[in-house]
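User: Quick sanity check before I run a bigger batch. Here is a single chain. Can you write out its predicted 3D structure?
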Amino acid sequence: PLEKGFDAEASGLLMPGRPLVGVARFHSRACANGIVVLTQSGTLVVARLPVSAQTARGGIEFDSAWPVRCIPAGTAHGGISTQGGVAFHAGSKSYVAATSSPEPFYIREPNPDIAFRQATKAAEAAGKPVPAPRTVIPEYQRHDLRTTSVPPLVPRFSIDLLSPETFGTVDSYMLDVHEHVAAMQTLELESAQAEGGSRALVCVGTGFVLGEDVMSRGRIYVFDIVDVVPLPGRPQTNRKLKLLYTEEVHGVVSAVGELRGNLVMSEGSKLYVRSFANDTLTSFAFLDCHTWVRSTVGLRNFLLVGDVANGLSFVGFQEEGPARLHVLGRDAHACLPIECADFLVLGQQLQLLAADSHGHLHLFVYAPRDVHSFGGQRLLRRGEFSLRSRVVSLRRIIGSSRHVCLAMTFDGSVHAVSMVPEKTYKRLQRINGQLAKAVPPIAGLNPREYRAVPLHRRQNQAPKRTVLDADLLVPVYTNGSVVRQKEAAQRDGTTADRVLKDIVETESVFGIF
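Assistant: Done. Predicted structure follows.
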């Protein structure tokens, strides 16, 4: 019989960090909408989640591999920007989102004489200096020309601070008209005023969309999240966005990153390294890139730069003497439309992970001693893997033993990528090859070809298969019969326990979530 009011966590049956064998839904009269849990000690526990978690906005879904909670964030807006997205500020445990809302669009006054008179009248009314005679007013500073009563709608962007408790908007910074968010990240920048010499700041890069006949420009914003006195009856409003620095530049700030405590920002095809001191950004190194920088990621004195039309570049940063950036190696083909990139680290080994706009992952390595790299000038391709959906973001998470890269896609899926030791890879690769031939696929599908890059998208006609698909290997091997596990391991010259141990060690890397 089920004891009412029973606290499984307080009794020690379900403790955080204690391994579980399986979890499934359970529903009965005594326990409505509950769960049944089998612990590693062999105890079967029927429990129900707390009422506060069940009645929370959005609820929690436990059917997937990771628990998912869908929450309507912020106030009424048209949506979250796919370019800027969401940034997490660890110091205040708050979220910053780049949101947009629709507003009417009007063309600007085309007549320069009328625009000059309007600017002069507005300056006199505001008590500001009037423009000099025959001054050509820039188009983005001219007044709207209302030619229709039903104008089209365009997005108006803002930077919203979300409460970690209610996920409602507690503060907002409205951007200018036609100013779009192109990049946003929380970066650890050096600061003499902060304890430890660095502090987490929210850096936002924007660009103005005014048409092809108007020179592009953008802005860089640096925000901090500070504690304030909350409003009466609203304790979640105890934080606020504080604008520390803003600057208008001659180009769209399409990517921001961090390198040795400094801000790395792209201005069109140029890359700048800027120090943040006394709430001011000062440039001290730059690099001319190809077409359009889409991604910048720093690791120690190295920088990974992804171009939207000219592939991947591996850049070194020299601090001694005159600070400068120099290219160590580039993609040999230089034609991949890179959306985002990051590093993969395992001990002393380093690989470069890049995602293109077609939903494919590419692995590169910098090997200056390899004869095929021409002294390191070319990055050697080590593998490719298709996710079948466009990747919008790559995030590297540092675990206890190795680094894990999370790839977020347009269809809402999250993929985890990590490096494994060479012996483990070879053993699992041989087991995977055996099972792919011995086990009949569902509906006659080809699971290995599904993850292969299409022929017209391949950079090499015979790419190296250096990426293991855990979604294919783990269920087929672990859920199979013991006899099949032993037979597959014997053909490989090993034991089933050794293969299972490799699978457990590989999946334990993702236990940080």
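The helical segments are 8-11, 51-54, 112-126, 422-438, 447-450, 470-478, 482-491, 496-508.

User: Great, the batch can go ahead then.
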